[in-house]
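User: Hi! Is it possible to get a structure for several chains at once, not just one? Here's what I have:
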Amino acid sequence: KNQVEQSPQSLIILEGKNCTLQCNYTVSPFSNLRWYKQDTGRGPVSLTIMTFSENTKSNGRYTATLDADTKQSSLHITASQLSDSASYICVVSADNNNDMRFGAGTRLTVKP
Amino acid sequence: DGGITQSPKYLFRKEGQNVTLSCEQNLNHDAMYWYRQDPGQGLRLIYYSQIVNDFQKGDIAEGYSVSREKKESFPLTVTSAQKNPTAFYLCASSIAGGSHEQYFGPGTRLTVT
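Assistant: Yes, the chains can be modeled jointly so their relative placement is included. Here is the combined structure:
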């Protein structure tokens, strides 16, 4: 069964600190993996997309990694800001149909 | 401005009433989707449409209905048959079906009492 698991469920950090969010998946055959940021009460917005051959991709202070062998991805946020407070959702797409699986998300709170 | 819009932002209904959520996009996307988001769970696909006048059931279609009469519009009706309709509903569109990036609307929070 295609699934996406994210950890931790929630995280609180101080402004300026770094953090890493994890995503494990069992989706097969793998097509791509996206990280979305969702502010409270808003729709998700794409941060990065990674395909099978990509190991690392950065978008400003956000860096995503992918290990297709172990089926794991991480999202690293450096020098966190208050505006980083949001839910971060990992989404994995299968290569053979419209199957797109969403993780439950990690709720990040950045405190001053 | 190009984008995807949903209305209203908040919607309240009495149990037993049908309610229709609006979703419009001017991105010229062929594919549109409806998701339901509940606390502690990932988004779950209700219905999707890859082309006008065609749509497919997602994982949790029971109690919902859709139409796709125009490329720009994909309204979702939550019927009285949906046992737990209170949720945050998200509409999305993509240039085509498959694994293309989906662009999400701002969502509608439906509360049924």
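The mean pLDDT of chain B is 93. Residues 22 and 75 of chain B are 5 Å apart (CA to CA).

User: Great, thank you!
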